[in-house]
Fold:
Amino acid sequence: MNITMSKVSIAVKCSKCGKLNIVEVRPFDFSGEKVVERRCECFNMLVTLSLRNNKCCDIRVWCLACNNIHNYSVKWKSIWTKRVLVLYCPLFSYENCLIGRIKDICVILDNRDKRLNDALTHMEWKEHFINPGIMLEVFNRIQDFHDQDRIICRCGSKNIVVGLNTDSINLMCKNCMDNTLIRASNTLDLNRLKSADFIFIGARLQTRRSNY
Structure:
């Protein structure tokens, strides 16, 4: 049985700064002009929803994966009855927007992280890295830094690209192209990352603890 929800959450990463945003939308938000906009804290547009003929909802998503704006049309009813609507980037098959119940969205986000970890622990990946165990732990730490907004570039952008090497992980800012190399081949590399409060791309800032 489908249950009509009084509000839905929308999870989408900002195409400018890269931050994961989870915002809410309610049916009465569409009254009047019947257009709903949601922006990131950096004021970049994330998504717009437009009610059409009280039957369809036109959705525009500013895509992080390809830097384009994608248009989707879904049934108005499905937004408020489906557990999660998944909208994909047509170029990279990237899940660029999730709409639905917050607990179900969180399950999808957690599974996405698990798929990344599973890929790293697959046999062919093990053969690629000098120390697969350390690489996985460093990768997970970097993921935590990103989720907690603790990867900082001097240009202010949070749109960071991750590149995997045999013994390190390269973090590059898509905005200014500065980069930082995180070593990931031994326990000393892992402990150094554990002791850091932030990862700084480009210029280094001083805090109470050591940083990259």
